[in-house]
Amino acid sequence: MSFRFAVSSLAFLSLLTATSSALAQDFKDSKEKAAVASEQNGKYFDADGNPTFKIQPDGTVDWYTFSGFRRFNSDCHVCHGPDGVGSTYAPALVDSLKTMDYGTFMSIVAEGRKDVGNGNEKVMPAFGDNKNVYCYMDDLYIYLRARAVGDLPRGRPAKKEDKPQAAKDYENQCMGG
Description:
Layout (H helix, E strand, L loop, with lengths): L1 H32 L4 E3 L2 E3 L5 E2 L7 E2 L1 H18 L12 H4 L5 H10 L1 E3 L6 E3 L6 H4 L2 H12 L10 E2 L4 H11 L2
Parallel strand pairs: 4-7
Antiparallel strand pairs: 1-2, 2-3, 5-6
Helix pairs in contact: 2-6
C-alpha cells in the first residue's frame, strides 16, 4: 500500500510540476505579447496590432485602462466578480485573458456565449447592441489584459493619463453624441 501511495504521490507531483511550468510559460508569453509596440493618439498597441495597456513606473495608467476599469465595474463585475476574479456565475476573466485572443474576446462580448455542459448552465448575454459596453469593448479588453498579466493590481487605479481627444471623438461618434 505504501508503494502505491509513493507512486501516486510522485505521479501527482510530476503532473503538478508540469502544469505549473505550462502555466508559468503561458503567463510569460501573455505578458510578453502585451508589451507596447506602438502608440496612436494616446492608445497603445502590441506587436500584433491589438490594443494593450501602458502603466508608468509611478503607477499612472493610460486612459483606456482606466476607462476599462470604470466600464467593467459598471457592467461586468456583477457576474465576473470584482476586478475580474470570477464568481459562482461567471469565470475569472483575469484567468481567461491569459490565453484568450482579442478577436475571441470581442466576439464573446458582442455575441454572447452559452455553456450548458455538465448540468451547469452558464450564459453570457450578448452586448453587441448595448452602447455602454459596445463602445468601450477595447477599453474592457485593455483593462482585463493588464489584470491578467499581473501588471495592474486589484482596485481603482490611483493615477490616470488625461482622456485623449481621439477617445472623446470616438465616444461621441459611437454613443451618437
